[in-house]
Amino acid sequence: MKRKGWSTLLPGFAVMGTFAVATAQAPPAHEVWQADVRVQLLEVTEVKAGGPLTTRVVVMSDNDDHARAVRLEILLPVGVGVLRLGEGCRSSPSVVSALTARVSCALGDIPVGGLREVRVMTTGAATGVLSRFAAFVTSDTPDPVPSNNYAEKVVP
After folding, report:
1. Is residue 90 part of a domain?
2. Is residue 2 scored above 50 in pLDDT?
3. pTM for the whole structure
4. Residue 17's beta-bridge partner residues?
5. What average pLDDT does this structure show over 130-154?
6. CA 100, 77, 116, 53 torsion-angle sign
7. Does residue 48 lie within any of the structural domains?
8. Average pLDDT for residues 31-54, to the nearest whole number?
9. Residue 52 lies in a domain
10. How many domains does the chain fold into?
């Protein structure tokens, strides 16, 4: 781009005229970091009939980059109480019989190909009622395949 203005050629001398002005070049294109975090496994097991349930969730990070600040939400069925939580997890502040009962886990960073396993022990569900457990994982790194971030398990 050319502009008219004063230009200093030598100390104490200035000329009026047209001169070239350097313009800022566009910054180089930034690489987009992507990590496909997903719920690899959602498993709910009962040791004995009517006893506590163990929910096991395995989260995996795949694609090109590490998944940063991974978070896992485990949604609990109505009427199920939390007995034991995995490391980095906390239960919802609402009463367990509320529809929003859940467990939130901060899993930190997961490297490419890395796995994190979370176990939560809960009270058994009401007899004769289908109990629906769900898990949802997300991270601060953009996810190219968000459709695999959710899993659901129904326990009779």
Report:
1. yes
2. no
3. 0.74
4. 5
5. 94
6. positive
7. yes
8. 87
9. yes
10. 1
Give the C-alpha distances (Å, rounded to integers) separating 40 from 16, 20, 55, 118, 126.
70, 59, 13, 12, 27
Q: Which pLDDT score is estimated for 95?
A: 57
SS (H, E, C) the chain: CEEEEEEEEECCEEEEEEEECCCCCCCCCCCCCCEEEEEEEEEEEECCCCCCEEEEEEEEEEECCCEEEEEEEEECCCCCCEEECCCCEEECCCCCCCCCCEEEEEEEEECCCCEEEEEEEECCCCCCCCEEEEEEEECCCCCCCHHHCEEEEEEC
Using CA atoms, how far residue 38 sits from 22, 99, 114, 138, 154, in Å, is: 48, 24, 11, 8, 19
Beta carbons within 10 angstroms of residue 12's beta carbon? 6
Owner of token pair 């190909």: 113
CATH of the domain at 75: 2.60.40.1510
User: What range defines the domain where residue 104 resides?
Assistant: 35-155
Amino acid at site 90: R
Domain presence at residue 145:
yes
Q: Please identify which residue in the block is written with the tokens 């459709």.
A: 147
Residue 4 reports pLDDT greater than 50? no
Which of 60, 113, 116 has the alpha carbon at shortest distance from 86?
Answer: 116
- Distance of alpha carbon 58 from alpha carbon 107, whole angstroms: 11
* Residue type at 103 in one-letter notation: V
